[in-house]
């Protein structure tokens, strides 16, 4: 057994895969151009309309669609350059007990 | 004696049972360990596939953004709009996302395929005849002890600039104007200024209508200069400008403009 391997439970790995897929699914649905040229408010509105089993959030610096509430179970994050700032798309499993 | 044999048999049986339990526990432990490894490999492979798709899209977006910023910065000569922009023939970009190294080389192309699977960049994907098109070679690499990933792809992208139409309209207007001026019947000792200005105005009206039908705006401006002390006829300078306003680009709307100028001796 390689000691460097992740020791996570397979359930969490599967959930994290879901959160990554949710982010990619959202980006696919709106397109990279739209997401990197739209204001945070518009992205938040589209995230609200986007039907997903995981919680999705967009954040630019300290501003986000959802309040910052600590650590999350099966958390995934992808960032996109938007001019001088960076947009972070985050996803996690809602109401999961760690 | 019988009791002793039974005790020995019971001891052997319990040793066998205990040994089997230990062996099966070890096997179970090892299979669980292997399961963790397989899940980790599978998870990393999935993550790489997801991030590769995004990396490919982001590097393609960078190419279009770079190109748009160059194109919207100035007006370009109708006779060779991209001649003054050699950078657009070979743009090299690199990007990193989630440990994936994406390197791209791209430039303007005159041939390509209309359908492209780079859907993240819709509606800028694929080769569209008449538009300004780009070919992009992307090389994606990821390497850890668990997962090795390498992909090389070619994609076609475009900016919805009416490239062919704008150049054709511009060159046609310039050609029309020059031929009209050449056809003028000149009277010796008399300047043809009014006739030349009339030809310019006529070309402006005619080609403005044509351009509008194609989604473009054309204007011909002129100015005359008496730089020979007023003794000789003036030189009339003209400039044909073809513009495409509000081109929907990757960094917002922009204006594409080509122009060609010249001078005519009245």
Q: Can you give keywords for this protein?
A:
heterodimer, A: 98 residues, alpha+beta, four-stranded antiparallel β-sheet, 3 helices, 23% strand, globular, disordered N terminus, B: 266 residues, 2 domains, four-stranded mixed β-sheet, 8 strands, rod-shaped
Explain what this protein looks like in three dimensions.
The complex is a heterodimer of chains A (98) and B (266). Chain A has one domain. Chain A contains three helices and four strands; from the N terminus they run αααββββ. A four-stranded antiparallel sheet of chain A has the order 2-1-4-3, covered by helices on one side. Chain B has 266 residues and is α+β, with helices and mostly antiparallel strands. In chain B, the strands form two sheets. A four-stranded mixed sheet of chain B has the order 1-8-7-6. In chain B, strands 2-3-4-5 form a four-stranded antiparallel sheet, with helices on one face. In chain B, helix 2 runs antiparallel to helix 3. The longest helix of chain B is centred in the N-terminal third of the chain and has 70 residues. Chains A and B meet through helix 1, helix 2 and strand 3 of A and helix 1 of B.
Topology, pairings included?
The complex is a heterodimer of chains A (98) and B (266).
Chain A (H helix, E strand, L loop, with lengths): L9 H21 L1 H6 L2 H10 L5 E6 L2 E2 L11 E7 L2 E8 L6
Antiparallel strand pairs in A: 1-2, 1-4, 3-4
Chain B lengths: L1 H70 L4 E2 L13 E7 L2 E10 L22 E12 L4 E12 L3 H21 L9 H21 L3 E9 L9 E15 L2 E14 L1
Parallel strand pairs in B: 1-8
Antiparallel strand pairs in B: 2-3, 3-4, 4-5, 6-7, 7-8
Whole-number count of domains of chain A: 1
By DSSP (H or I, 4+ residues per run), the number of helices of chain A equals 3
Tally of separate domains of chain B: 2
- What fraction strand of chain B? 25-35%
Summarize model confidence as the mean pLDDT of chain A. Answer: 85
Question: Helicity level of chain B, as a percent range?
Answer: 40-55%
DSSP strand tally of chain A: 4
Report the uncertain regions of chain B: none
* Main sheet overview of chain A: 4 strands, antiparallel
Q: How does the overall form of chain A come out from the CA principal axes?
A: globular
Task: Tell me the overall shape of chain B.
Answer: rod-shaped
Q: Mind telling me the C-alpha Rg of chain B?
A: 36 Å
Please trace the helix and strand order of chain A, writing H or E for each element: HHHEEEE
């Amino acid at each position: 057994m390689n000691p460097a391997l992740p020791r996570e439970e397979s359930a969490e790995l599967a959930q994290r895969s879901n959160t990554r897929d949710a982010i990619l699914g959202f980006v696919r649905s709106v397109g990279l151009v739209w997401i990197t040229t739209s204001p945070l408010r518009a992205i938040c509105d589209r995230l609200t309309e986007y039907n997903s089993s995981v919680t999705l959030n967009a954040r630019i610096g300290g501003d986000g669609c959802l309040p910052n509430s600590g650590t999350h179970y099966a958390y995934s994050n992808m960032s996109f350059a938007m001019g001088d700032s960076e947009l972070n798309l985050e996803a996690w499993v809602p109401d999961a007990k760690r | 004696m019988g009791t002793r044999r039974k005790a020995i048999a019971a001891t052997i049986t319990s040793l066998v049972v205990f040994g089997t339990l230990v062996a099966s526990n070890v096997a179970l432990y090892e299979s669980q360990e292997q399961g963790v490894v397989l899940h980790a490999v599978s998870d990393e492979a999935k993550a790489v596939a997801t991030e590769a798709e995004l990396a490919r899209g982001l590097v393609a977006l960078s190419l279009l953004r770079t190109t748009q910023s160059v194109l919207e910065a100035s007006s370009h000569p109708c006779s060779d709009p991209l001649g003054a922009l050699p950078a657009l023939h070979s743009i090299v970009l690199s990007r990193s996302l989630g440990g994936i190294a994406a390197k791209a080389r791209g430039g303007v192309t005159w041939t390509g395929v209309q359908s492209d699977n780079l859907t993240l960049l819709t509606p800028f994907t694929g080769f569209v005849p008449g538009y300004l098109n780009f070919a992009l070679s992307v090389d994606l690499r990821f390497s850890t002890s668990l997962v090795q990933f390498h992909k090389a792809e070619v994609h076609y992208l475009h900016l919805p600039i009416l490239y062919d139409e704008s150049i054709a309209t511009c060159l046609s207007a310039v050609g029309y104007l020059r031929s009209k001026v050449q056809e003028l019947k000149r009277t010796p000792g008399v300047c043809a200024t009014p006739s030349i200005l009339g030809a310019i105005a006529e070309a402006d009206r005619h080609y403005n209508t044509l351009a509008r039908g194609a989604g473009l705006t054309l204007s011909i401006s002129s100015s005359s200069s008496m730089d020979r002390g007023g003794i000789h006829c003036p030189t009339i300078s003209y400039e044909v400008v073809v513009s495409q306003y509000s081109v929907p680009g990757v960094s917002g709307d922009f204006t594409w403009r080509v122009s060609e100028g010249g001078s005519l001796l009245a």
